[in-house]
Design a protein that fits this description.
Elements (H helix, E strand, L loop, with lengths): L1 E4 L5 E8 L10 H4 L10 E7 L5 E10 L4 E9 L13 E2 L1 H17 L4 E4 L6 H8 L2 E3 L2 E5 H11 L1
Length: about 160
């Protein structure tokens, strides 16, 4: 998986690992928008550039064994990688890599029945539909079938 540095166009290989208990000291609400300690009961993963300890993105995943689905409970990129008030991001594709990771996890758990779901904020629904091919299924937005594979191939 790779992310791209906006200023230079340079690609950086990334890794996604479980968040260690010691990481929570560095995961602040001001940089990651949420109190991630509240999500310790879920599977929380961090995205870093290979060889770096700087956390650029986080995702909280729930594996639903009763149905073939991995739910993205929460996803956030670090504040310097969010376009706010016309500020330019440092890196792009962080969220895509985290979503692709959820897709891979779902495939590993559920094979051809894999599904990834999330409940986006109102202002992000169109973004998830347009950028990742998610479809609305009840109160959630989902990736499945070919759309799930497309995200997986694009970001892996």
């Amino acid at each position: 998986m790779e992310i791209t540095e906006v200023a230079t166009g340079r690609k950086h290989r990334v890794q996604i690992d479980p968040v260690a208990s010691t990481d929570y000291k560095r995961i602040t609400k001001s940089r990651y928008f949420f109190n991630w300690k509240d999500f310790k009961s879920t599977n929380v993963f961090k995205l870093t550039i290979e060889g770096s300890s700087d956390i650029l993105g986080l995702v909280s995943l729930i594996d639903h064994k009763g149905e073939p689905r991995v739910e993205i409970k929460l996803l956030a990129v670090s504040e310097e990688n969010v376009t706010l008030k016309r500020k330019v991001k440092q890196y792009v594709d962080i969220a895509g890599c985290l979503i692709a990771y959820a897709c891979r996890r779902s495939i590993n758990l559920f094979a051809e029945n894999a599904c990834v779901s999330l409940k986006p904020k109102t202002n992000l629904k169109k973004h998830y539909e347009k950028k990742y091919g998610m479809i609305r299924t009840g109160g959630s937005w989902c990736l499945l079938g070919q759309d799930l594979l497309n995200v997986l191939h694009k970001y892996l």
